[in-house]
Structure formats: C-alpha cells, structure tokens
Specification:
The chain has 319 residues and is an alpha/beta fold. It contains 13 helices and nine strands.
C-alpha cells in the first residue's frame, strides 16, 4: 500500500486539527480516504490495529447524534483508545466557563477532542486554545467528517473520483459546504440546486471556484433541480430543516416543495447513479421512499464509512 506509506503526508497530518476540508491539500484528503479504505479492510479481515492504545478522546456534544457518537466511540475502541462522552450539562460550559478555559483544561487530561456543536466559531476558538488535536464533528457551517466518508463511499462504488458529477438538491447547508470543498479539491464536478435564499455560502463558492481552476473540477449553483441532476453520477440530498432550524420547518417545506428527490427527478441522472443522504432522512419530504430505499441507494454504506473515515482521521492526527 505505497500511498499509505507516504511518510511526508503522514508527518504533515500528525498533531493537526481537523476542522474543515478546506484546511487540507488535495493529496492529504486523498491520503485520508485511502487510509480509511485500508482500515476498513483491516477491520473486515479481523486484523487488530491499535495505534491509539492508551489514548483518550473527549467528545463534546452540544447537538445530539446517532452516527457521530456511535462511530467515534467504536472507532476509538477499535484503535485501542477510549472515548469519553461529555454533554454540555456535563461540563462547566453549561454554567458559563469559557471555551478557552475548557480547552486548556481538557488539553491536560486528553489526547484529542471531538466537538459537535452549533456555531463554527466555537470549534475554531476551542482549537486555538487547545494544545491537542481538535476534530469538528459538525457545526452549522461544516460537516467534514461526513464529507470524507462520502468521498470514500463514492470511490468504493465508482472506482474513481476525478471527473464524476455530483448533484446536490436542497438546502445550502453545512453538508453541501463540505461536499463542495471536497469536490473542488478532488477534481469532481458539482451542481447544486437550491431555492432562492437557501443557496450555499457565496464566499465559499468563490474560494472553491479558484481551487477548481487548479484541479480541473467545476462548481455550479442553479435554481432548477432538473438542471442540476442531469447526467449526474451521484445524487445527494439532506433534510430541509437541519438541527437548530426546526422553527423554520413549515416555511422551509413550502420553499423546498419542488426540490424532493423522487423517481421522476432521478430519471435525468445517469442510469447507474448512486443516491446518498447523510441521515437522518425524512421520507416523503426531501426524498421519496422509493429512492432512498431503492436499488440506487448507498446510504447505509455511507453511514458505515463514518466509522472508517473517522478512524483514519484519529489515527492520522492522534497517533
């Protein structure tokens, strides 16, 4: 596995924070994907690989989770370490202690911190004050762990990444932000269809279009779902109202009514397209049951790969 033995890339990742894919070079992202695939192979073969033996990951959850919590806990266990679950109520953060003081204190006890929270600035502030690696488990702006697992899944099913087309239909949220960065850096073409007022961050689009000029990728933001999905290799969607936006559910349901990924819409994708969703899904809203439960859906392969992608991240930055 020559790519996995690239000492220069391995050295560049050691001790780093994992806050956003934009912080990493294309070759570093691809190295992490290759490592995730190798760690998955080891796991399936029953090979013991424990580079984090004796190490502890503190997991701060200000947002609840199924996949993030289970995959990080199991991942740390499989890598030989221990994961410590910490809700906001378990910490003095809930009583007004600063992020900086929390980060400096936890750095004396732990070998790494994973945080799943709301504001992206919280993760940045935590990482600045901590002296140990910090992993972004999700913020309102970015979801890099999920995107890394997504590109691993696409590579496994399609055999390549460069030149493929991803169509994202729906809200321009944290998920699409991380997917756009990955597409730009890894050489994919990505089209996003969102209603007016719900587009991805304009500054991020501008930055990633500059990256596209270096990698041969392309990014388009359009209004019509059919235009975005035409000839797509990968079709992706997410909930219309992410966690923290529940109060807007009714308003968003009206705005996104034409943006459901259903049997009629996916006819415009390539015949061998794959369907992806980061889960949890609301069947009958952003996606029809026939699509998410149909033969093109790879959502549970995608969910499984959260485990392997995050193991790759932890092994690379914490070992």
């Amino acid at each position: 596995m020559p790519q996995l033995l690239n000492d220069e890339i391995a050295a560049s990742l050691k001790g780093r924070d994992f806050l956003a894919l934009a912080d990493f070079k294309p070759e570093e992202i691809r190295w992490l994907i290759d490592l995730a695939i190798e760690l998955k192979r080891k796991s399936k073969a029953g090979e013991v690989y424990q580079p984090l033996k004796g190490k502890t990951l503190g997991m701060i959850f200000e947002k609840s989770s199924t996949r993030t919590r289970v995959s990080f806990e199991v991942g740390m266990y499989q890598l030989g370490g221990y994961a410590l679950f910490l809700s906001r109520n378990d910490l003095q953060l809930g009583r007004g202690e600063t992020i900086s003081d929390t980060a400096q204190t936890m750095s004396r006890y732990l070998d790494g911190i994973m945080i799943r929270t709301y504001a992206h600035r919280t993760v940045i502030e935590l990482a600045r004050a901590a002296t140990i690696p910090v992993i972004n488990g999700l913020t309102d702006y970015a979801h890099p762990c999920q995107a890394l697992a997504d590109y691993q899944t696409i590579l496994e099913h399609k055999g390549r990444l460069e030149g493929l087309k991803i169509a994202y239909i729906g809200d321009g949220n944290n998920m699409v932000h991380s997917l756009l960065v990955g597409a730009a850096k890894l050489g994919l073409h990505m089209s996003v269809a969102s209603p007016e007022g719900y587009e991805p961050d304009a500054e991020l689009i501008r930055q990633m279009q500059e990256t596209c000029s270096e990698t041969g990728a392309s990014i388009r933001v359009v209004r019509e779902p059919r235009e975005a999905i035409e000839d797509a290799d990968v079709v992706y969607t997410d909930v219309w109202a992410s966690m923290g936006f529940e109060a807007e559910q009714e308003e968003r349901a009206k705005a996104f009514a034409r943006y459901q990924v259903n049997e009629e819409l996916v006819q415009y994708a390539k015949p061998d397209f794959v369907f992806m969703h980061c889960l949890p899904a609301h069947r009958g809203e952003e996606v029809s049951p026939g699509v998410i439960d149909g033969k093109h859906s790879i959502v549970f392969d995608e969910a499984e790969n959260r485990l392997h992608a995050q193991k790759a991240i932890m092994a690379a930055i914490m070992a």
